[in-house]
Amino acid sequence: MRRLTLAEVEDARWGHGDSGLLFITDRCPVGCAHCSVDSRPDSPRITDFALFEEIVSGLALSQLSMVGISGGEPFVERRALQHAVRALRAVDKDVVVYTSGVWANTASPPNWIQQVIQQCGAIFLSTDSFHQAEISDERFMNAARAIAAHDVPIFVQVVEVDGLADRTESLLTAALGPTWSTMAEINIVEPLPYGRAEGMFTPGPRRRGSSFGTCPVAKAPVVRYDGVVTGCCNESVLLGGGPAWLRRKIGSAPELTEALGDFRNSPLLQIITRVGVGELAHHPRAGDVGDREFNSICGACWLAVKRLADDPQDGLLTAMAAMAAMGKESAL
Fold it and tell me: Where are the alpha helices (DSSP H) in 92-192?
């Protein structure tokens, strides 16, 4: 079983078409105020397991080398999580699970949870002031110890507020001892103003579209349990925001592999991920992308996608993508 470092996970996530995310459920019992997908205890979950099996089969057949599994809280979907991890590992995909650790209400979790942990290359375990409102320090430490007991690397994902990174180090020391850094890494993440967190965090300053560079999240497609596939891992796109071109609806494994291949080979997404959104302003049909101002790269990206929408007959777009793939950024 290959164990992953945080750097290896990031390399796979930001390598074009190397990784994807399986969004296994909308449901989560924690209810954090900063949730970027508005997951709740009564949110939708899998109802069509035959479709879910097709989705997992499509991921197994894809070119992806690593599949992350998130939600919601993945561990509320026992049958689906066990099936997905088992099927993906059977074809030697690296599997990374994102969890709040809500399942660790005892020092020794149920056997099925331990079996899932054993098959993971790494696990992202979240903690911050929002999670702590519902998940005690004891539960977090139980989760960390349960994961470490199987020699699975832990990446503690923290939305940094009020010096919580320092407090996280103290929790890891209490849970795993003074050598915790041999078993865990702390990963500081930016808060996302989507879902339930919309309006909670201040948007960034407005910038001209021409100033935006590459967007790494456009390299990582997302597949939801209901067959919605997105060309990037922006939660708001998954929830229906942005241009429709960034979303597909599939019903079978072949349709999923086709959709993933289309996004991987898209000239538009290749330009966005390799040379930058601002470069699309050089295209005659997207000149206003460079002149207008946006709060985030997403706004500039969405306008560019609406203007260009990956026309297979657009020779200029194809040429720009080919030059980007060759590393000739200066020629654009």
Answer: 111-118, 129-132, 137-148, 164-176
Q: Is residue 106 part of a domain?
A: yes
Same domain (yes/no): 164, 24: yes
Which residue has 């503690």 as its token pair?
Answer: 156
Residues 126 and 60 in one domain: yes
CA geometry: angle 309, 313, 317, nearest 5 deg: 60
The H-or-E segment that residue 207 falls in is: strand 207-208
The distance between the two most distant Cα atoms of the chain, rounded to a whole number of Å, is 61
CB 222 within 8 A of CB 250: no
Cα distance between residue 101 and residue 141, in whole Å: 9
Query: For residue 194, what pLDDT band results from cuts at 50, 70 and 90?
Result: low
Task: Look up residue 267 and give its two tokens.
Answer: 């000239």
Report pTM: 0.89
- Do residues 144 and 239 both lie within one domain? no
Between CA 232 and CA 227 the distance in angstroms is: 15
Give the mean pLDDT of 79-101.
97
**Domain range holding 177?**
6-202
How many other CB atoms sit within 10 Å of the CB of residue 291?
A: 10
Taking residues 58-76, report their average pLDDT.
Answer: 95
Same domain, 265 and 194: no
Q: Please state the separation of Cα 180 from the chain's center in Å.
A: 26
Question: How many C-beta neighbours within 10 Å does residue 214 have?
Answer: 19
- Whether the Cβ atoms of residue 101 and residue 125 lie closer than 8 Å to each other: yes
With vertex at residue 20, the alpha carbon angle to CA 16 and CA 23, rounded to the nearest 5 degrees, is: 155
Pair (254, 157) in one structural domain? no
Q: How confident is the model at residue 197 (pLDDT cuts 50, 70, 90)?
A: very low
CATH number at residue 146: 3.20.20.70
